[in-house]
Amino acid sequence: MSSQPYFETVKSFSDVPITINGVETSVFLEASDGLVRLFDLLGSGVFGFVQNDIKGNIGGVRTRYQADSTRCSTLENLVRSEVSLEDRHGTGCLIRLTRGLTFLCRALQHMQKDPSIELHVCFKRSYDEVLRHHHTFFVRSLAAVAVRAAPYRRDFYARISQGAPMEKLDAELAKWLSGLDVIVKRLKEFIEGEGYGRI
Asked: Please, which residues bridge with residue 22 across strands?
């Protein structure tokens, strides 16, 4: 008997409401919590530093949201609510979380786009596109080691599919990534366009 496929056990980013006021914070946090578990499927602590960074940043956004859920009902309003504050911890966490989500989104998009390449190549491309320019030489060296330790593509697919047909997995993954892609692009445009930081 097989377990449910990974993407059926977590809140999909495609289900996160986006209104005229922005991305709904509470549902976004729920989807982000599910994403953290995806790193466990990579096995053996691969990208543990990224997973820990994402967890910490989810925690920072959640703390700000819980402190004033009415004013922080959307991610954009959460950032705006901190403009007059001396400590803009929630904003900093959202910026770093958006980077981490963009990294994972791009890696999995590369994986779906080119079925012939191994996972470590997908993650290397994504790292170079999204995170590399934010890191010191030391962190880049750690990332290079982590990328090389990524599981084989077929093993990763087996872990996330839990025995479900590959077509179903690809469809669910595409839907999940499409939702995540819309959100990270929107956040990047908002954060950089309004001068709150750089993704």
From this structure: 19
